[in-house]
Structure formats: structure tokens, C-alpha cells
Amino acid sequence: MNTLGIQLGTAIDKKDGQYQVAVQVVDPAEVASKSKGGSKRVPVTMYHATAPTIFEAYRKLTTTSPRKIYASHIRVLVLGESLARDGIAKVLDLLWRDTELRTDFYIMVANGTEAKNVLKILTPLEDIPATKLYKSLDTSSKAWAVTNPFTMDQLIEQLVSEGRNPVLTGIRIIGDQEKGEKQSNVESIDPATQLKFSKLAVFREDRLIGWLNEEESKGYNYIMGNVKSTVGHVSCPDGGYLDLEGIYFDTEVKGNVKNGEPVIEVKMKTLGNIADVECDINVEDVKTIEWLEDEEEKKLTMLMRKSVEVVQKKFKVDAFGFGEAIYRSNPKAWKKLKPDWEERFSRLKVNISVDARIQGTGTVTNSILGDVRE
Amino acid sequence: MSTNAVNSDTDVHLLPCLDDNIAMIQSALGGSPDLIVKGFKWGDQWRAALLFIDGMVDATQMHEMIVEPLLSLRKDDVPFEPSPGIDALHALKDHVLSAANVSVVDQPALLFNSMFSGDAVLLLDGSASALRIDVFGIEERPVGEPITQSVIRGPMEAFTENYRKNVVLIRRRIKDPNLWIESRLIGKVTKTQVGIMYLRNVADDKIVQEVRQRLDRIDIDGILESGYIEELIQDRTITPFPTLNNSERPDAVAAALLEGRVAIVVDGTPFVLTVPGLFVHFFQSVEDYYQRADIGTLLRVIRFISFFIAMLAPSFYIAVSTFHQEMLPTGLLINLAAQREGVPFPAFIEALLMEVTYEILREAGVRMPRTVGQAVSIVGTLVIGQAAVDAGIVSAAMVIIVSITAIASYVIPTANMSITVRMIRFVLMGLSASFGMYGMLIGIIGMVVHLCTLRSFGVPYMLPFGPFVMSDQKDTLFRLPWSRMIMRPSLMNHENPRRQRKKPAASKGE
């Protein structure tokens, strides 16, 4: 066990036609619970090598690393943006084929920087940056709905299924790269440099073609049914906002072919609670609740429609798997539609309907705001 | 008390002359000073001698039952024809001696045997026979608490080294004429009394017959403990698994008898054997039945879990840490890797080091004089445990593994099964160190196959698991309430399988 370099994160970039593999290897003695505090080493270290193929680069790592790099426990794979634009399928083959790797690690795309740089940033709370990325992606996808945690097997599934294109989450470095690489980055309360998930990377087949912003990402995730819980605000009639916490989401995407024309029905059901009342409104009134439900429905519909439109107009690529939905409902029609699907997709009719219900108002009814003002 | 073991010198006979007989006996014993010969005259005229081994007889009893009646017998009171000879012996036995257990012996071999068992021997002048009179009185350890099989609730009586007391302790629990005892002397030199006990209408005749045959086949100079018998009559010698159960608890033996098993009581040891000894029997403790069924079941499940921990924990750790790191959650892997950082040995050597150290400590703990016990335990725990970790020779995780293994092996209620587990553990450790989990599984499969080939007195060892007997599952991994255990375990009783006559009427209104 102590002859292994436990690799938790991998970054792959493409440079001058060659692959650059950088691995983040954990230094167990520095991470383990009762570290004796003597040495002030960083908890992880990085080895990197460049070679024409990924496997060669991997093996080449041993020329710098004292231990064999052990890949079973890899948590995240960060792909460089340039690599992603070039195509990720070749990269995935090794990782998919090799017996040592599990398939439950998350895959993300470095946004605006090299993948290697992402794994160089030291992070507080979670000593190991790769673990921080993993957990952060996991938590944010559950509570905020703008990220899209894709594991290896899910990504492969998306790549090979018909009428569907993968979407990966982007990772950004916020702050100064150099400061982030120093131990001092984790010694201040508000670290100078942080890693942040933002935007979703849209792929055509295995090539990155563009990014969705936060709103669009949210819309995308609503349609894909990836949302478990999130928060969204509604503008009150008299100004101010009211937050609704969505606690249950169920989205159904159905494809149909009517008179040779494909139509997509997106039906969403959602349950929510009133989470935060920051305006003068009577939430004890059933009518208000009904009004809120209407507002929520409108807002969600708008979000999703915007997302669909952006993808349709800007990227012209079926990131939602609408093609797959049609294939499932009508395989024969799909065969005809398939050759020029991308073109059809960009003018595809998508009907979106939302059924929002508000379940509770939290532990209080009306806001204390009204009383405070009097 | 018939046996073939004492017939070795049948050519020697008692003579009708008292002095010759005494001389013969004395010379046979090499003039041992512990042979006491008391010569006297009874009925005012006839010569007689009382022979006994110093310290083996109860002096008061002997005086009241033999010496006093004989010496106070006046010539006129002699209730028979005063012709010394065999008839006088019978007459004395029937009319004069008040001792309960008296019989006539002809052969010197039997006579010696009686003397060495604590009988007094009465020789009459002119008689070629002798009377043996039971006045046994050796100072013996009283019935004490069980040391090796203690319980929280249940009888606190244990067998002693005395055959008779042991038989009584069982008899007291089963007051039934069907509790039959057959006794024989085994050991050409030690002439140890060995008793077979069984419930006649419950135990399988075939098993009883098998026990008889195997005991009669024994041809050895000495039996000093029931372990001798166990090894001589077990079905297969080359197996790490015990196929005879032993207990120092009379209640456990009584329970076994009620299930139709056969008990073998050996003089001189508090450990009584019960046969057949099946795999599940080694995980049953009497307390399972003294506590309520749910508690009993919990205890038993814990025991089976402990069995697997004691056997597999180190080999599993070795396999996972050397071959299958991917099986561990990432956090745990990093933690373990950090502990192993700087440990100079591979996991197998590390485990072996600690296991062997522990076995040495354990053996020392059993063998050492009580007075140095504390010193050893301090050295053991502090030096071996704490210091080894601090020095970085072994990892803390390994100490935890070895400790849980050691503790788990003591949960198994029978000591011999726990020793078995410890032996197998080392084999499995070697296999996992060489071939990982694959090797460990091969080892386990091999063990299971071996277990399934074993038999104990003709009964498959793994019964009721293999062959699977549904009705016997009630008292294996689980212990069902008594109300569900109507029948005895089916393996050994065909004649009288019912434990409870009828199903108890379902209690209503509760």
C-alpha cells in the first residue's frame, strides 16, 4: 500500500499535438487525521508528462514519481478546453478500457485555463483539491442545479446513444493562479484563489462547441430532470422578492412525430416551499399561493424555453437528447429524421408545460416584515 | 466391572494361605510402604488381614464398617459354620460387613485394581479369594465453578476429577432409569475408569454401539485425560476441526444426553466428552437456553460473526491492503496508507509478526505463574502494542486488526474450536498474501469442502447445513423459543424424537 501513489485527480491537456497528462497524487501522511504537524508540506503533489498517446504519458510519469501511480481512486478528470474542442473520445478510451479505473469519477472541462492549472490550486476545508472538486460538484448539483455531475459511464453512454450530445460542467479558477498554488492560499480565511463551477460545456459529438451561462444551465438541467433541489425567486407585485425552494422535480420529455414533423413535449411537475419572503405579501391567502404557483410556472417555462432557444439557435446541437426521445417513441420516423437532425433540431417545436405546486410556507406564515414596519 | 485390560496376568492365583497371599501382594508392589497390611483375628480365632493403600481409604468408614464388626464378632455369634473358605467370605459379606459395596475377587489383577481405586481388601486364612470393600476416601477437589465455560446465568457447578462425582452430577439432573451407564477400564497401566452414558430410549443405538466398539479398540498404556480418548476414537486424525465436544459443565452434558448424544466420562479429568460433536455444537453455549430465545439468538449470531472475524480479519486486511486497494473507500485508503507510511514490512509480514507475538503472549498468559501475570500483561500491552506502533514497526490499523481477531476468537464458547480457528487463520493469511482475495476464497472453499467430508461417529459434521435439514434449523444459527422446539434434533433420534408431548396450547388473551 505504501508503494502506491494514490492518484485522485487527473488533468489532460493537448499541447503541440501531444497529450500532457498531469496527475494529482496524495501524500497520505499529510492528509491523515492525526498528522503530527511537523512538516509543512502540501497535501498533494503533481506529476506530469507529455507524450503522443495518453498511456505513454501515464507510464512516463514514473520517471518523475517514486511510486507507481495508482488510478483506481481517481475522483475527477479535468479536461483542457483545447483538448475538449479537439475531441475527447480518444482520451476516454484508455480510461474506459483500463481495468484499474473505476467509472465513478466526475468529468469536467477547464474553462478559460489549462486543465493542469486547475489541479494546482490548493483548497481549504478539503485538503485534497480533487476531493474538493468532487464534493463541490456533488453538492452543488443537488442544491443549486446549475452543474451537471457526469461520471465516466454516464458520459460514455451519452456519447454513444443516438440523438444526444453530452454536456459537461465547466470549472474556473477565480483569482490569481500563482497565489493559488502556494500554501498561503489556504492560510487565509478568504482564500485569494478558488475553484468555482460555472457554465455548462456543450458538445457536438465529442467536441466542445460552446458554453451555457448560469441561467441557461439551470434551464438545461430542468429539462434533463437533473434537478433535485434548488432555489429561485419570484418578483412580488409590490416590489421585492420571494424565494421558492423547489423540493421535488419531475420532468418528462416525450417525442412525437405529427405529419412528419417532430414535436417535443416537456412536462414538468414541481413541488416547492416558500423559503424566504422579502416583500409585503399575504401568504396565508390561497389566492396568493395560486398566484405564486402561476408565477413559478411562468418563470420555469421561460427558463427552459430560453435554454432550448439558445441551444437551438446558437449551437444547433441536440444537447437535450430530444432526438433520443423521438427515437424511443417512433423509431421508424427517427430513421428518416436522422440524416438532417441537426438542421431539424434548430427549428424543432418544443412545447413546455409546468405544473408547480406550493406545499408549505416553512415554520411561519406571514413575514415579520409587515409587523416590523408598523 | 469387566474388562480385558486387567487380564494380563491371569496365571497368577490367590492361594488358600494368608501369609503366602500377603507375601505375594507385597512383593508385587515391591514392598511399597503405602500398602498397609493389618492382620487380626476374627471370631476370636481365625486369622485375617485387611489390606489397603494408605490415604486412599476413609479411615472412619473402614473402622465402622469392617474392623469394628469383625473384631466385635464373638465366636458364638458367628452365624455360620466356622469353616474358613469361600463360604466364610460370602457369609461375612452378607451378614457381618455393613459396607454397601462389597464383592468377592479371585484374581490378583482385579484385587490390585480395587486397592488402587480406594477399596480395602479383606483376606482370610485358608481362602483363595478375597473381599473388596468400597471405603473410598481420597481427599478430592470439591465441586467448583466452571473455569473454562463460565456463564452469567445458569448453574455454577463444574465436573471434578472424580469419576463418581461426575456421574452423580449428571445423574442428579436426569432422574430417569433410562439413563444408562456402561463402565470399563482403559489403559493397560493406568486402568482408568471410563464410562459411557446415554439415554437408552433417545440415543441412537448405532452410535452407542460405535462408541463401545471404538473404546474397546483402544490399546494404550495410559489414559490421563479425556483428550487421550478423544484423539483415539475420533473419526479422522488429520483435520484441524474437533469432532468430539467436551464440557466441564454437567448441565451441558445433560442437555447433550437429552438430545440423544452420548457422554464419555473419564476418571481423573473434569472434561466430559460428548459425541457426536457436530460443527454447530461448538457454537452452542448452555446460556443460549437459559436466556430468552431472542437473547439466545443474538448471542449465537454474534458467535458466528466472531468466528468469521477471528478466522478472516487478518487475511482480509492483507488481501485488501496488498492487492485490492480499489475496494476501500478513498478516505479510508488514504488514512490506511498514511499509517503504513514508513512501516518497513509488507502487510503480510507485519500481520504475521503481530499474530505470532500475540500467540506467544497468550500462551505465556495461560502457562505463567499467577504471580508474574501483571508484569507480563504490562510488557505485552505497552511494549508490543503501543511501542511497536510508535516505533513505526507496525501500523496502528494492524494492531486493531490483531486485537479484534484475538478478542473474537474468545467468543467461540469451546476452546478447541477457537484453537482451530487460530490455526486456519495463519493458512488463510499466507494464501491472501500470495494470491489476494482469490487465494483467501480458495482457502475458504477448501475448508468448506473439507468440513463437508468430515463425519463424527457416522453423522455428517455439517449437519444440519449440509445435508440441509429444515426442521433442525431451529437450533443452529438461531435459537427458537422452546415452544417451537417440539422435536429433538433429528440427526440422532429415530425412536423417540419428541421432546414435548404436545404443542402447548396457544395462550390467548395476552
Automatic annotation (TrEMBL), chain B:
Transmembrane segments: 301-320, 391-412, 424-449
InterPro entries named among the record's database cross-references: Spore_Ger (IPR004995), UPF0353/GerABKA_families (IPR050768)
Keyword Transmembrane: yes
Keyword line: Membrane, Transmembrane, Transmembrane helix
Pfam family, one: GerA
Highest taxon listed in the record's lineage: Bacteria
Family that this chain belongs to: Belongs to the GerABKA family.
PANTHER family with a match to the protein in the record: LEUCINE ZIPPER PROTEIN 4, SPORE GERMINATION PROTEIN
Annotated protein name in UniProt: Spore germination protein
Higher taxonomy: Bacteria, Bacillati, Bacillota, Bacilli, Bacillales
